[in-house]
Design a protein that fits this description.
6 helices; mainly alpha; 2 strands
Length: 114
């Protein structure tokens, strides 16, 4: 059998006692996205992006690495910017474990998952 003939047939495996869930469209994870937009560095960078101030934007995004506009590393700045991102990732993981995203997909809510 040639490669073309093999590609035509799609094999589906059946697992006893398991239900397979298939996502038919792209969804946006809201909790991690909210965590990213809640960081002080991103909130400061958005007005700079809108006004076209690229140097200010790069300086503000440096706070994500713990380096404020002055140029010296600060662990407090690092934690202030990464705490919302980590919290969003934890909420996303908890929603997956509790089955909230499966409920959202069964109720046909488009593009959104936690």
């Amino acid at each position: 059998m040639s490669n073309m003939a093999r590609r035509r047939f799609r094999r589906v495996r059946h697992y006893a006692g398991r239900v397979r869930h298939r996502v038919s469209h792209m969804t946006i994870p809201m909790a991690p996205l909210a965590g990213i937009f809640a960081t002080p560095a991103i909130q400061k960078a958005i007005p700079n992006v809108m006004s076209g101030n690229i140097a200010g934007t790069v300086g503000n995004l440096g706070e994500l690495a713990g380096i404020p506009y002055g140029g010296t590393f600060s662990f407090d700045v690092l934690m202030k910017n990464w705490t919302p991102i980590i919290a969003g990732a934890v909420v996303h993981k908890a929603a997956n474990m509790l089955g909230v995203n499966r409920i959202l997909s069964k109720s046909k809510i488009p593009l959104i998952r936690l």
